[in-house]
Amino acid sequence: MTTPTYVGAVDLAGAAREDALDVMARLVRHYQDKTTDLADGQWREPVRNYLDPALFRTEVERIHHGVPLALALSCELAGPNTYKAIDVAGTPVLITRDGDGQVHAMINACRHRGAEILGEGTGQTRRLTCPYHSWSYDLKGCLTGIYGEKTFGPVDRTERSLITLPAEERAGVVFVGLTPGVAFDLDTWLGPALPLLETLRLDGCHHHSTRVLNGPNWKIVVDGYLEGYHFASLHRTTVFKTNLSNMATFDALGAHQRNVFALRAIAGAVGTPPTDWEPATCTGPILFLFPGLAIAGGLRHQTAVSLVMPGRTVGESRTQQLILLRRAPVDDEEVKAADQARDWFHDVVLDEDYLTGEGVQRGLAATEDTDYLFGRNEPGVQHFHRVLRDFTNS
Ligand code: FES
Ligand SMILES: [Fe+2]
Predict the structure, then answer these.
(1) Tens digits of per-residue pLDDT, 322-381?
(2) Following CA atoms 42, 47, 50, 51 in sequence, which dihedral angle do they give, to the nearest 10 degrees?
(3) Percent helix, strand, coil in the chain (nearest 5)?
(4) Ligand having the closest approach to the CA of 240
(5) Which residues, chain by chain, have CB under 5 Å from ion ligand 2?
(6) How far apart are CA 344 and CA 57, in angstroms?
(7) pLDDT at 6
(8) Are residues 322 and 256 in the same domain?
(9) CA 247 – CA 112 distance, rounded (Å)
(10) Is 338 a domain residue?
């Protein structure tokens, strides 16, 4: 398997460059001292919190149905008259971009007798036509056409429109509220994560590919995105070839967080002036938007985005893995490079992270009355569970 090379793609300027250099300076110090950012103490997490169906329902209700959820990247709905259909913990969601470029979201269930209007995935369409009896809706969800209406009898078009959900697009990400009629305040929710998200300039990216991974409990999966303590062991022949292990910065950003891992190239920066530093090749940032969006790659040409969602039961999750490029490939060579990045990312995450996660899942029931211990060197995992605890009182 070819390890991907890290290529910077966007020139950093102003506050974004200051921030990237500040993070890199922290990592250079860690490299010299053989240290990493630390939490104040360790954390004990009851194993049953990964297993309890009642807690799982509380999480989905208070978190996934309670906060603005990042459910799409703007570039997945590239241009007017596009859509993305996605299932979130048993809720079928349809996101559209209308002819004016405006984003909308609705429940993906026809108001006649409930058929799913579009199957999971992305595409182009001018109207939403139900496959069952051909009722049709516009991209805002308004009922516009009823097949055989004369024989069907009268239908109130307003009452029979699709159930809409609040949706808003910010910095290249589409956020959806899964509770109809409950608006959200995105600026307050994103807080200090917003400027970092804006810095990534995802709104100008090209969507290259999406792959879906089925996995264990969604928190087992998310935990793995929030620490680099496992690189030397689990990813010895893959990620560890480019990344150092157990060496990262951590920044809490409200409910969200950023972990930046030291790449091997950072060795060359020691003793050189920061004006010569190239953060894109020496640092590996993951910006995590709670509860399940991990954006890896910073300002490189290729960005790998993981969208982790609970499945329909406590023991299942689904992850969409997206590869974004700074611009569409211009020739076969570039397509091949992007395909390679897609396959590498998929294989490593599936064969190493998710395989391990399935093993954790298998051991849950037998260890239900014990707890896990999160180290001081796993501040991201601790922060995630602190936020979870605040939402669920668990
Ligand atoms: S269920 Fe959609 S038209 Fe009948
Ligand atoms: Fe991993």
Answers:
(1) 999 999 999 999 999 999 999 999 999 999 999 999 999 999 999 999 999 999 999 999
(2) -170
(3) 35, 30, 35
(4) 2
(5) 353
(6) 34
(7) 67
(8) yes
(9) 55
(10) yes
Reply yes or no on whether the pLDDT at 12 is more than 90: no
Atom of ligand 1 nearest to the CA of 117: 2
Nearest CA to ligand 1 atom 3: 133
Of the candidates 133, 161, 183, which is a domain's last residue? 183
Looking at the structure, do residues 169 and 199 belong to the same domain, yes or no? no
Same domain, 45 and 74: no
φ/ψ of 103, rounded to 5, equals -95, 140
In a domain, 240, yes or no: yes
> What residues contact 144, with CB distance under 8 A and at least 6 apart?
127, 136, 137, 138, 157
Domain of residue 135, CATH code: 2.102.10.10
Domain range for 239 is: 14-60+191-392
Amino acid, single-letter form, for residue 256: H
- pTM of the predicted protein model: 0.96
What percentage of the chain carries pLDDT values higher than 70?
97
Q: Quick one: which ligand is closest to 304's CA? A: 2
Q: What is the pLDDT of residue 75?
A: 98
Residue that is written with structure tokens 């139900």 in the block: 130
Query: Which residues have C-beta atoms less than 6 Å from ligand 1?
Result: 110, 112-115, 130, 132-135
Average pLDDT for the chain:
95
pLDDT 10s digits, 171-229: 999 999 999 999 999 999 999 999 999 999 999 999 999 999 999 999 999 999 999 99
Torsion of CA 215, 220, 222, 225, to 10 degrees: -100
End of a domain among 148, 183, 218? 183
Six token digits for residue 73: 């990247």
Q: Which two tokens stand for residue 302?
A: 């290729």
Which of 107, 110, 127, 128 gets mutated to test ligand 1 (max ligand atoms within 8 A of its CB)? 110
In the predicted model, what is the mean pLDDT of residues 6-14?
70
